[in-house]
Amino acid sequence: MQPMTTEQIRVLIARGKMKDTIFQALGIICLAIGLLVIFLLVGDMLMRGLDRLNIEFFTEFASRRAHQSGILSAWVGTILVMFVTAMAAVPLGVAAGIYLEEYAKRNWVTDIIEINITNLAAVPSIVYGLLALGIFVYTFGFGQSILSAGLTLALLILPIVIVSTREAIRSIPAMIREGSMAVGATRWQTCRYHIIPYAMPGILTGVIIGLARAIGETAPIITIGALTFIAFLPPVPFTATGADGVSAGLFDWVMSPFTVMSIQIFNWTSRPDPAFEINAAAAGFVLMGMVLSMNAIAIYLRYRMRKNIKW
Predict the structure, then answer these.
(1) Which residues fall within 8 angstroms of residue 98, CB to CB, at 6 or more apart?
(2) In a domain, 1, yes or no
(3) Residue 242 included in any domain
(4) Which is the most buried residue in 18, 220, 275, 306, by most CB within 10 A?
């Protein structure tokens, strides 16, 4: 094989640069199309629902009259359901991820567990709703409550939390573990003082992204029987409820009927009155703002924590 001349090498390099330029241009075009579609959808939603974005919209209950309807019970229910979801999914998911990555032996049992966790992340959300309907609503007797909804969504995001925890732990250099154990630290001390703090940015990012997915889920919430029309709030702890004046307990609110933003939007879009579509657009914009806020918090926390890490 004859060696390439200088001119042939230049032509080859020029072809490679041209391919890189074409690929970069195609990537920018695809990104621009995606962003344009998002901006058009969000802009249309904002323009249609802008007139309803006022204080009354956030402080009024749903009504049969479109101009009097609000999202008070929906956004309060969404926050409470997300709180239960986080309380159930985060400790369990993070602990499971730490165990599988740091403590579990590498054998066929852990291989099966890892395969099932990966597969569960791809299961349709309606399946989790059917599972929760049989277990939480009927078997455990939680009924159509905030607790049932929170546990259902916790099951939904649990694989995401576990996988993100494991990936965050895997990103920690092996020398951190070796150095800690070399000075006499136990495995738990290594995890507590080194592995978990260094992996926390990745763990928090995965947790908030999982919660951002759960906040917009509709199918599993409908399956367990969330109300589409509700004109009251869950009882506030230690305040009198009803005509008998009995004070509500600290956790009575978890057993209360509820609705969430996605259910409220679904209810309004199914109404024949076009005025409810304006309400749905406004509520959709609010829900998108909640999701974007959660993602912004994840980015900020990741940036701040990674900035403070010193290997």
Answers:
(1) 165, 169, 191, 195, 196
(2) no
(3) yes
(4) 220
